[in-house]
Amino acid sequence: MGSSDTVIITAGFRAARDRARLDRLSAIMDSNPSQTNRTEATAAFEAELEELVTTAFARGAAVEAVWVIETPISGAPDWSVAIEKRPSETDSGFDPRYLEE
Asked: Of residues 7 and 40, which shows the higher confidence score?
């Protein structure tokens, strides 16, 4: 998967677990979070996104793409997330081809 690939993720109702997750998301959206909660939520999002991308990369996933997330919740937007690989400031020489499973 190259940087020009687009992956569409539909957050649908595949299982009861997904339905419960979507119900929780709807409840969170209805709660009208305060600015403090938004700041905390943004910090948590940044940490979770970093963990997600680095862990997926370490496992050999093709993370570099444009990800389109379609949300089936009334009033919730769909999202487009572009993930591009860039050279690190400290080149560690890490090459995921040499990971052992």
From this structure: 40
- CB under 8 Å to 26, separation ≥6 — which residues? 73, 76
- Which residues form the domain of 87? 6-98
Domain assignment present for 1: no
For 42-95, the pLDDT digits (tens) are 899 999 999 999 999 999 999 999 988 887 777 778 889 999 998 877 766 666
Rounded Cα gap, residues 28 and 45, in angstroms: 14
> Into how many domains does the chain fold?
1
The rounded radius of gyration (Å) of the Cα atoms in the chain is 17
CB-count burial class (<10 Å; 0-12, 13-18, 19+) for 15: exposed
In a domain, 65, yes or no: yes
| pLDDT at residue 3, as a whole number | 46
pTM: 0.60
In this structure, are residues 68 and 80 in contact, taking their beta carbons and an 8 Å threshold? yes
